[in-house]
Specification:
By secondary structure, the chain is of the alpha/beta class. 37% of the residues lie in helices and 20% in strands. It has 19 helices and 23 strands. It has a 7-stranded parallel beta sheet with strand order 3-4-2-5-6-1-7, sandwiched between helices. The protein is globular, with a radius of gyration of 28 Å.
Length: 620
């Protein structure tokens, strides 16, 4: 059976030819580059990176089918520890894939009876009890001792990584321990991490066993609204309203949602959702729910003012997926929704569970905290009121809570109410996401991550403190005990830069060439700086930096200060570009008596660059 062809034909039969083309490309690319070359004797790990809510499940299934075509007999699909999500994934596998023995968490008998006659797919939650149970099943049946296992870990940066990495005694958190047991219990394994927020994964060491050997990024479809739509690098888009400019923000957001709901539902649409995302505190959720209901009651009691508000909001609508209705039709529908209590208000948090069917149709406003994150999708989401704040914000958590991303949104009617500071944080996260994508697409293996000060890439308990180094922008770095491969080669490169100018603007590629002739001492991680420059070049291929060149400097080695106060001040004037200061010392005061060239590098201010140092690089 041709598993991939069968799956693609099913997608095409549903009218999704473009989706089938995208899945086919991903599956064939990964199949050719990584699965067909798999040795069936090793344990390898890879990363499938796609934008949040951009259709990763279909891509996962395509890769799974390609792996079945290439000889893998057993597959394990892991979901987050969510009963509904695991059940939804199981049902989707049964609906989409043919020719497999498909097993849920309780189908141990079916798995044993099948004996890998048909390729088996097991869908499990990342739950300690469930994983321990199946680790024992794999072990007792013995099937995996002589067969490879293909593991697809959806949202792999959540729960799978070792949260005990910094504890003494080589300890492992329970989920991580059982996943290791399952993958290492097979004769070989290919473990595919899948996520839209790969920060934690990319900052794992190779020695941990969880850093990907390869990374593949798939582009979202043309109808996808993602980070560049909401948080572009240029000016603020029309779909963003800063809360600082709104007097009654809850009222404004609710009225906007009512107006959009009227346009959507009166045009024959099935659903229109609004989302309020305050703090994690449940008391805040209850307060906002009361405030929303007060606004709805105000609409009932103040018809003339209500109508004026609806007309105001409808003037800003520019629907792309339906014809814009007249003010009268929009107000008539809005009035009907309010007067007939057809706008549902749901609280979704640890205390209040809401089934996805509740907001699958009609007009709904959902209020919640952490439960609005991974795996939860809101169809027809058009209005978001985002007030969530954190003293120590994490980029991956914030991005996963950005439920505005997706395919079924109407770009002409989206609206995000958010304060200016949060908007800036989201814009910074989007900028780094684009940098990660650019590095992957250019084939850079050692992907670098950077964020503004105060924004952490991920939670600290999954990063190895001994091996994740932070390079601070705006800080001057230089080696105490450097050497040059040849002094003459650097002198030749720098001969055009004399003392007629205090500094020069040069290509980052030229700065890299100069640094390539430096032999660093262990205190100066030259490879990290070179990788950061590669990251900048991936973002901006013609990137520029500042070069300061000084000769005959009678500086003593090991005094703790390399560059002069004047040059320190000069370099400090450039806050948005890398600054490389090259001093040629006389050699009279140390430096092995040589006229060495000593580099001092300063990266752009206000940015923290994260670098993973492996065991064997500690002595560089």
């Amino acid at each position: 059976m041709q598993y991939l062809k069968t799956y693609l034909n099913k997608i095409i039969a549903r009218g999704n030819e473009k989706l089938a083309e995208s899945i086919s490309k991903t599956a064939e690319d990964i199949g050719k580059s990584y699965i067909s070359t798999f040795s069936f004797t090793s344990h390898e790990i890879g990363l499938l990176f796609g934008n949040v809510q951009s259709g990763k499940t279909g891509q996962m299934f395509g890769i799974l089918c390609k792996a079945a075509d290439l000889g893998f007999p057993a597959f394990l699909i892991l979901t987050t520890d969510n009963v509904v999500l695991q059940a939804q994934t199981l049902e989707r596998v049964k609906s989409d894939l043919e020719g497999f023995c498909i097993c849920g968490e309780d189908d141990t008998g079916l798995f044993v009876e099948n004996s890998l006659i048909q390729p088996a797919i097991i869908i499990l939650k990342k739950n300690s009890r469930v994983l321990r149970k199946w680790a024992n099943i794999f072990n007792t049946t013995g099937f995996m001792k002589g067969n490879p296992l293909f593991i697809i870990d959806d949202e792999a940066d959540a729960a799978s990584l070792n949260t005990f990495i910094n504890r003494k005694g080589n300890q492992f958190s329970s989920i991580n321990k059982y996943l290791n047991s399952i993958k290492n219990g097979a004769t070989s394994s290919l473990y595919l991490q899948v996520t839209g927020t790969p920060q934690a994964i990319l900052l794992q060491t190779m020695a941990s066993g969880w850093h990907p050997y390869f990374t593949y990024y798939f582009q979202p479809g043309s109808a996808y609204l993602g980070g560049d739509f909401f948080f572009p690098s240029s000016q603020k888009p029309d779909c963003i309203t800063f809360l600082e400019t709104v007097k009654e923000d809850t009222k404004e957001a609710v009225l906007r949602h009512i107006t959009v709901s009227a346009q959507v539902l009166a045009s024959g649409g099935k659903v229109c959702n609004g989302l309020i995302h305050p703090s994690v505190r449940q008391s805040a959720h209850n307060t906002y729910a009361k405030d929303v209901k007060k606004v709805l009651e105000w609409c009932k009691a103040n018809n003339a003012e209500f109508k004026a508000e609806i007309i105001k909001h409808s003037a800003s609508l520019n629907p792309q997926k339906s014809a814009k209705l007249s003010y009268d039709v929009i107000f008539s529908k809005a009035e009907s929704l309010v007067m007939n209590d057809e706008i549902n208000v749901y609280i979704m948090n640890g205390t209040n569970e809401v089934d996805s069917s509740a907001y699958a149709q009609g007009s709904n406003i959902v209020i919640g905290g952490n439960t609005l994150g991974r795996g939860v999708t809101f169809p027809g989401l058009q209005t978001i009121y985002y007030t969530r704040t954190s003293k120590k914000p994490q980029a991956d958590t914030m991005w996963q809570h950005s439920r505005m991303f997706g395919y079924d949104r109407d770009p002409g009617m989206m609206m995000i109410y958010i304060d200016e500071h949060l908007y800036k944080l989201f814009s910074d996260i989007n900028s780094t996401n684009n940098s990660i994508i650019a590095q992957i697409e250019r084939g850079i293996d050692d992907v670098k991550i950077y964020y503004p000060e105060g924004l952490n890439p991920t939670r600290k308990n999954v990063l190895d403190n001994k091996h994740v180094e932070i390079i601070s922008g705006g800080t001057n770095y230089y080696p105490f005990y450097p050497d040059n491969d040849t002094i003459e080669s650097i002198s030749e490169l720098l001969k055009a830069f004399d003392n007629t100018e205090p500094y020069y603007q040069v290509s980052l590629r030229f700065i890299k060439e100069v640094l390539s002739h430096i032999i660093p001492s262990p205190d100066f991680k030259l490879s990290a700086f070179m990788s950061v420059l590669d990251t900048m070049l991936a973002d901006t291929p013609a990137g520029q930096g500042i070069l300061i060149v000084r000769r005959e400097r009678d500086v003593a080695q090991g005094t703790g200060a390399l560059i002069s106060p004047n040059d320190w001040k000069l370099g400090g004037q450039f806050t948005d570009k890398p600054v490389l200061t090259m001093y040629q010392v006389t050699g009279n005061k140390g430096w092995k008596g040589k006229k060495l060239w000593i580099p001092n590098i300063k990266l752009p201010h206000g940015t923290m660059y994260y670098d993973v140092l492996e065991e064997d690089t500690q002595g560089e």
